[in-house]
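Hey,
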Amino acid sequence: MLYPQRFTQFIREHADTVAALLCGLLLFFGWFALHLGALGLAFLLLPAAYVIGGYESAREGLTTLFKEKELDVDLLMIVAAIGAASLGLWRREYHLIIDGAILILIFAISGALEGYAMQRTERSIRSLMNLTPDTARVLHQGREEEVSISQLKVGDEIVVKPGELIPTDGIILSGYSTLNQAAITGESLPVEKTVGEEVFAGTLNGYGALQIKVHKAAQSSLIVRVIRLVEQAQTEAPPSQEFIDRFEKGYAKVIVVAGILLATLPPFLWGWDWETTIYRALTFLVVASPCALMAAIMPTLLSGIANGARQGILFKNGAQLEKIGKVRAIAFDKTGTLTTGQVQVFQVISVSEYTQLNVLKTAASVESYSEHPIGKAIVEAAGNLDWVGAVQVQAIPGQGIVGIAQEQQVIVGNAVFVQQYVTNLPDKLREMAQSLEQEGKTVVWVAKNPTPLALRGADVMGIIAIADEVRVEAAVTITRLKKLGIEQIVMLTGDNQETAYSVAKAVGIDRVYAQLLPEDKLDVIRRLQQQYQTVAMVGDGINDAPALAQASVGIAMGISGSDVALETADIILMADRLEKIAVAMHLGRRSQSIVKQNIFVALGFIMLLLVGNFLGNINLPIGVIGHEGSTVLVTLSGLRLLK
């Protein structure tokens, strides 16, 4: 039973190729029978070749004709082949039947080759679908139970052993390991993951066992969203392809009308005989068909989408791949885009009586009770130091925090807040703080009072400078974009002028818009579009969503980006790697170049074959070879983007 099943599966997977092979064999034996004068056998074999080789094209052509009331290129090929056979029977010139069969054969071979070519792109995209396992090990009352991914619920705890794929997005409850995230982010190097960090479905676990808590539904996982978007990108035709589709429908009608005129007028106008007239009209139907033109765009764009997905660049549709190659200006959000969005301690400066470690430990004693990002950064910096948590902690939003640690009052906050507790702020320290603030750093003052109940009299211990770290690849990315010929690069941020200009200077951006609300960012994008037409916007937060939607091309950071930004954007950088923007632009420009080459080749072949047909220098088989050869050529040309 196994061999018949394999044979049936092989036939199903390679139906076009099998049909072309059978058509070729029947054509050869039919030609041989004609050569021997066995007309009965020839008239049995050759119609079989027509039916087997042309069945699929005839079915598609007739379906399009009756359901959509449109003429199809496939139908034109069949009409031309049957016309050649009819002419051969009428004139008893049976070599014309062979010509029609050759047309069918070459068309069948071309269809099979195009199918294999497109399967390469589909395999690249379909490989995404195999990134998640079908089941997961769920911990239930201390025992492991294997359940379907679709049955996982938020709050379930699952176990992932070394070498296994992560089944769904979740937060690590226990364990430490390295994860290969190449399938999701395009990064080849494994990343370390430990308790409290998020892991993504489809990533490969390394050497450590992990216990993970499911924090979102399986159908909402990052990889499922990626798959959904890639599938959507496959089905949505970009504007250029929609134009070609509309053009093809009108063009097919023009071909039919022109074919009818060519089949009737030349005997009266130029004195051609009817055989020559009909034969050249049939050849015209073949060589004028826009098959190569139809294949000039989508294989290229689908290949580019597959290439981008492999590198962690997710294009939501082919239109965005076209547009990214035309971008003349680009705007960057600052926090979370040009910077990591995670503040950290940049510098600790102490007065002479204290050490930097004293300042850091004292600040951490009260900040350990704070949920503010600055407080978390201070606690993280003091993580390995020996400090005691404070009591009676009170936070004043936007100003600072106070508490009692080791029977002393600790005050941490901005200068205005700390001044309420100290006699004066040291002039030298004040100058240093101003200098750091001008560089875009946030300065936190630290003081302590030996007498907690006293209103003033606290001693200033020092200052802590907090900074949002600039992404290491940001400056390189800006340089590459300038080399690519981007005419204008700007930064948009809601942050203050000093911080904005310090980050812009660090990465090489000259034009800065600071202290912007979301609607202000939208206005800047509109002004840029008036001047540069095609404008890209790169962002990650909810406040960037309006600008991302307005931009010609919206680019979102895949890991740090908010759900709103991810939904609004046209392109997603799965690894938050800014340098991938230049890669995406190169892909877009290369795709445009290949599409233009393909259109030039397609139109060139059509014109060359039309001229050859009118001059009488080509016959039907040569016309078919030229027509189908150009179609296969532009299809294979489009697949160059897979590399």
